[in-house]
Amino acid sequence: MGTWGTWGPEATRELIRILFLLDSEADPLPIGQIVPCDRLTAPRSIPTRVPEISRLSLPRITVVGSYATGLTMKVPRLPSTGETLLGTGYRVDHGGKGSNQAVGCARLGAKVSFVARIGKDTFGETALGLYRDEGIDVAYVKQIVHAPTGIGFIIVEATSGHNCITIDPGANELLTAADVSECEGAFDSSAVVLTQLEIPVEAAAAALMRGRARGAGTILNPAPVRPLPPSVLQLVDILTPNQTEARVLAGRSPDSAIGSEDDSEEVARELLRRGVKQVVMTLGEKGALIVTASSSTRIPAVRMSAVDTTGAGDAFNAGLATALACRASLEAAVQFAVVTGGLAVTKEGVIPSLPHRDEVLHFYRQNSVTPPNWFSADPAGRD
Does 314 participate in catalysis according to the annotation? Predict the structure, then answer.
């Protein structure tokens, strides 16, 4: 009988049924709390070689956001105003910050529900194919006939990997607060709700509100940035802007010189005064800055050879959300996110660059670093 010992088929089915009920009724996890995590590990008292049971223990994340097909090319340098440059390496990729972050979370071991709107067109069909391949719940990804799937144009500087992006939201603009509120099942037992601003602010706010109501931790990645009222910022447990986005949200000019880390902390504290609970500011090659009401902590970046930075922010947010869904402390979660974001710059394209769980484990071991306990255990229950 192997791992099951003397269990018969009826007892086995009853055990699976009980475990499912227990998992579905579990209380949502607190965000940023230092508690040992068992969400990626099978309980020791339960047979560990049964995929159906181990899937129930995966961290659960709800992502509410956008999908856009990405059209990318490389240039020797980013063009100046009015300048035309010859590019190379044109390609068509999956994109949209919500979609990218959903895929990133799934690859790191999370069970992901994605709430989005796409067009009833070829690009929309390929999006659904992506989600099925990545194991993402598509029950709340709806196709609409009167708007196209979103499109993004990405220009990448070949020498540095730096990029600039423009987006036509298409169907993403039609995701409403009412649509989000109707997706009750997407928020069931979620530990973390993650959203961005490539969808209407009202829809993002509804996602944050729904997460709060369910006891989930809420993360807002405020990109593309736009001014937000305190009523929205007060729904955010963790805000993840880059330095420019943080300045805009704090009411400052995005074109003003970005100063020292002390300046970044000052900006972050202004965001706390506006209602955000905690700020995790990404600093590019300098890592990230955590600012809370009582502390400020800088997390250094990992050394990587940058090829394309386009997917770094999405990989960072996916790593952060997955770690927090596993009950990691905020500092430990940001340390993990710096690794996932760093790995993403080593490959071209967004979806190809989002690291899988095995790649992250390989990075830790290659650098003689012990992976976090909550991440090193195999979610499939293999020894």
Answer: yes
